[in-house]
Design a protein that fits this description.
Distance between the termini of chain A: 19 Å
Number of domains of chain B: 2
Number of helices of chain A: 10
Number of strands of chain A: 5
Bound molecules: thiamine diphosphate, magnesium ion
Radius of gyration of chain B: 19 Å
Oligomer: heterodimer
Shape of chain B: globular
Radius of gyration of chain A: 17 Å
CATH architecture of the largest domain in chain B: 3-Layer(aba) Sandwich
Strand content of chain A: 5-15%
Number of domains of chain A: 1
CATH superfamily of the largest domain in chain B: Thiamin diphosphate (ThDP)-binding fold, Pyr/PP domains
Structural class of chain B: alpha/beta
CATH class of the largest domain in chain B: Alpha Beta
């Protein structure tokens, strides 16, 4: 299939993810819409195109490992796992409910397909280094994809992991930074200016690629390139919009961790289902 | 009963203090909108330092500011204020004998929907092992405001544990508080609850009411200060009734239950004793009401423990 055609299919899939993100956060009346929506296209491409995973055999040894280092955005991962067949789609509405397997942040072992536990920012990327290092030691072929927030880059542990990954030459590790420009208290440029994320990772010895995190063709091409890089870990800096796909959530600090009410939910669903491709 | 958000009590008091004391500074690590100090930032933009998602750095910076004579209040969720910054708080602030006030919000089950990653049942246990640290968990907005004022006035490190949600006033505005002093909220001749924090003090008062209907008179001590612990008040109350139940929104290991057990054992208290708190478990997602039931922290659990104690001793 041509890349352009595949991109159209994945765009439709991303729309499904977006619907479920808003739907489950609305059902829970709690959770993080903004950072889940900004990562929706990236996560769709990974789960439906790149990750070597098998819902029928979620623990198969050579599977690729996905790490959501920005664990608060777990609605996007839960949606992808359900749509990919790891558990029933109907279960998505149990987000943050009593006894639910869909905890407020991803918990390893609770749900098939969750590789590590995250939720404290800065821990996931370190775990990802461990997962990638083990593939290296075993001479196994699996890759590790980690998705980080740009606010998360404030945590020192991210840079400890970045240096370790370089030391071990982990070219099986690909970190995708969801560069939506917002963190909890406001714009990153006001709260903790990052200056150039690509320059930072380059200085730490990583290969760096940049892409538009909402342009599916660009995502497919860039991830494809990332797979070909050898000798160093790869950082993909994805330019994104927080809340992407729901006009009133886009680029709004207040939609970091807020649930839509009934009216907002209806509008969001209408926009996601009816919006342009 | 009148109530107020605990975080508003915290922020309002910081504003009141900062108006006359230029040394008061507030530090945040990208959770200002949760901890409620946005109102402080509006009035004192130069004195609110937001370091981004970098709690360890926040406590290190607070320590540096303290070394120059400032009085820093650093706030974040209690899970990060304890686990993530323990070394910085231990070494840079406490061991260095500086003057850093660390504020942990959303303690224990009040972290509710955020789930196990964000639900600290261990922060008090960690903090209690730091030599000389003062540890307070206010029980209402009035005690919160009072202890923020006391913390600013006293030289030395303080850990303030604070649910951010609204809590009912238990004390009038002018009530006097002191570090190391508990309050006897309710007298009772049969047994005494020693409770820490607004959630558990509230549940103990409810349990005492239920028990009163059964002819059991339960007293309630509002512990307020875990360290230094008001040993005299707690021991006197325990000895007067011969029965004491500790109640905390935290592991029974390392927190209030442990502190009272140590006290009782060292003073050869021979009466009945039970601990209400989390029993060697991690947190999980849910509403606060569900979690209170799930972990056995509610008034029915407290009343049950009291009934057992009445039978046993
Ligand atoms: C160690 C830690 N500190 C604070 C938080 C609370 N928190 C959750 S999300 C967030 C902001 C994250 O911003 P970013 O990484 O940019 O995420 P995104 O914009 O993609 O949602 C904060 C401070 C946390 N989960 N972990
Ligand atoms: Mg961001």
């Amino acid at each position: 299939m041509k890349l352009e055609e595949r991109a159209r299919e994945l765009e439709a899939k991303a729309r499904e993810l977006r619907f479920h993100i808003v739907d489950m956060v609305h059902a829970a009346q709690s959770g993080h819409c903004g950072g889940s929506l900004s990562a929706a296209d990236i996560v769709t491409a990974l789960y439906f195109e790149f990750l070597n995973i098998d819902p029928a055999n979620p623990d198969k040894g050579d599977r690729d490992r996905f790490v959501l280092s920005k664990g608060h955005a777990c609605p996007v991962q839960y949606a992808a796992l359900a749509l990919r067949g790891f558990f029933p789609v109907a279960e998505l509405r149990s987000l943050r409910a009593m006894h639910s397997r869909l905890q407020g942040h991803p918990v390893q072992g609770k749900l098939p397909g969750i590789e590590v536990t995250t939720g404290s920012l800065g821990v996931g990327i370190c775990e990802a280094v461990g997962l990638a290092l083990e593939a290296r030691l075993r001479k196994a072929s699996w890759r590790v994809w980690a998705v980080l927030g740009d606010g998360e880059l404030g945590e020192g542990a991210v840079w400890e992991a970045a240096q370790a990954a370089t030391k071990f030459g982990l070219d099986n590790l690909i970190a995708v930074v969801d560069n939506n420009g917002l963190q909890n208290d406001g714009y990153c440029r006001d709260i903790l200016p990052l200056r150039s994320i690509p320059d930072k990772f380059r200085a730490f010895g990583w290969a760096v690629l940049e892409m538009d995190g909402h342009d599916m063709e660009d995502i497919l091409r860039t991830f494809g390139k990332a797979l070909l890089i050898t000798g160093s870990p790869v950082c993909v800096v994805a330019k994104t919009v927080k809340g992407k796909g729901v006009s009133f959530m886009e680029d709004k600090r207040d939609w970091h961790g807020k649930a839509p009410n009934a009216e907002q939910y209806a509008q969001a669903v209408a926009e996601i289902k009816g919006g342009p491709a | 009963m009148e109530s107020k958000e605990m975080r508003a009590a915290y922020a309002d008091t910081l504003i009141e203090l900062a108006t006359t004391n230029r040394d008061i500074v507030v530090l945040e690590a990208d959770l200002m909108r949760a901890t409620g100090t946005g109102s402080f930032q509006k009035l004192f933009p130069d004195r609110l330092v937001n370091v981004g998602v970098a709690e360890a750095n926040m406590v290190g910076v607070a320590s540096g500011l303290s070394a120059t004579g400032k009085i820093p209040f650093a706030s974040t969720f209690a899970c990060f204020a304890s686990r993530r910054v323990f070394d910085q708080f231990f070494l840079s602030a406490n061991y260095a004998r500086l003057n850093v006030k660390l504020v942990g919000t959303d303690p224990g089950v009040t972290a509710a929907y955020n789930g196990g990653t964000h639900m600290p049942f261990e922060d008090l246990g960690l903090m209690r092992t730091i030599p000389g640290l003062t540890i307070v968990e206010p029980s209402d907005p009035a005690s919160c405001a009072a202890f923020v004022r006391l913390a600013a006035a006293m030289y030395g490190c303080v850990y303030l544990r604070l649910p951010r949600k609204a809590a009912a006033f238990l004390y009038p505005a002018g009530e006097k508080f002191e570090f190391g002093r508990a309050k006897r909220l309710k007298e009772g001749k049969d047994l005494v609850f020693a409770a820490l924090g607004s959630l558990m003090v509230g549940e103990c008062l409810k349990a005492a009411q239920v028990l009163a209907g059964e002819g059991v008179e339960a007293g309630v001590v509002d512990v307020l200060c875990l360290k230094p612990l008001d040993e005299v008040t707690i021991l006197t109350a325990a000895k007067a009734t011969g029965r004491i139940i500790s109640a905390e929104n935290h592991q029974v290991m390392g927190g209030l239950g442990s502190a009272i057990a140590e006290l009782l054992a060292e003073h050869r208290f021979g009466g009945g004793f039970k601990r209400i708190g989390i029993r060697d478990e991690f947190g999980e997602v849910g509403t606060q009401d569900y979690l209170v039931k799930r972990f056995g922290l509610g008034a029915p659990d407290l009343a049950d423990a009291a009934r057992k104690l009445m039978k046993e001793s």
